[in-house]
Amino acid sequence: MRKKVIAGNWKMNNDLSQSVNLISEIKNAVAGNAVNAEIIVCPPFISLETASALVKGTNIKLGAQNMYFEENGAYTGEISASMLKSVGCDYVILGHSERRAIFGETDEIINKKNKKALSADLLPIFCVGETLEQRENDITKKVIEDQVRKGLSGISEEEIKSIIIAYEPVWAIGTGKTATPQQAQDVHEFIRNLIKEMYSSKIAENIIIQYGGSVKPDNAETLLSQPDIDGALVGGACLKADSFFEIIKSA
Ligand code: 13P
User: Fold this and answer.
1) Torsion-angle region of 95 (φ positive above 0: left; ψ -120 to 50: alpha; else: beta)
2) Which ligand 1 atom sits closest to the C-alpha of 11?
3) Which residue out of 233, 239, 244 has the highest number of ligand 1 atoms within 8 Å of its CB and is therefore the one to mutate?
4) pLDDT of 32-56, one tens digit each?
5) CATH fold for domain 4-250
6) First and final C-alpha spacing in the chain
């Protein structure tokens, strides 16, 4: 049985004091309740160190939203995998569609980032997803296959065990338009079969595939009850402790 993994991608929201408030509220909500899911919060870089101290000793894990694939050096404005480790991150979101679309990240760059994160013992949450135009042109599976194959190129059977894949249809992100549970399940099943083909049935059975795109308390349960949906990567609804916690509870 795969565990459910619920991650909150805060994106570019919350300064340091707002981050402290939100983490504290999430911590309080989680503390008094039996929770089955793995919980990950991904605040902006500036709050990671403080967040790490706040979640210490709880079952809340910390992730970053991005990193660069080089070890160190003249890369103004960038943050390395080992820097993220040094402030207590266990996870890093890589290949988010906003990074692809706004910051020009290619499959090749994302592949390098996946590899670098793994070598630094950071667990990638590797995002893939099609645009509305691609879905309407009926090339969703082709696009997803391409992103998965290229993003995971050269990643070994041993390493893939440390990766979470997040399926985030671009048209469902921040739009309030969620994929129907069946639409999401179809792509999740497709990704799992692809992983089976690329690696093995055992790896495919165990890999965590999260859904992301307008996950809210009122749709989380039906999405999370699909056989191949193992969790959620939540944007907007993770910015309030109560709605994030409602989603955690539905897992
Ligand atoms: P929303 O939940 O706001 O649609 O964002 C999803 C997302 O991009 C998470 O990474």
Assistant:
1) left
2) 10
3) 233
4) 788 889 999 999 999 999 999 999 9
5) TIM Barrel (3.20.20)
6) 13
- Atom of ligand 1 at shortest range from CA of 214: 4
Residue 35 Cα to ligand 1 midpoint, Å, equals 22
Residues recognised as catalytic: 96, 168
pLDDT digits (tens, 9 = 90+) for 111-159: 999 999 999 999 999 999 999 999 999 999 999 999 999 999 999 999 9
Q: Whose CA is nearest to atom 9 of ligand 1?
A: 235
Task: Check if the beta carbon of residue 19 is closer than 8 Å to that of residue 5.
Answer: no
Bridge partner list, 61: 40
Which sequence spans correspond to the domains of the chain? 4-250
Could you tell me how far CA 9 lies from the centroid of its own chain?
7
213 CA distance to ligand 1 middle (Å)? 5
Measure the CA–CA gap between 124 and 103, rounded to whole angstroms: 19
> Which residues fall within 8 angstroms of residue 129, CB to CB, at 6 or more apart?
97, 144, 147, 167, 168, 169, 170, 173, 212, 213
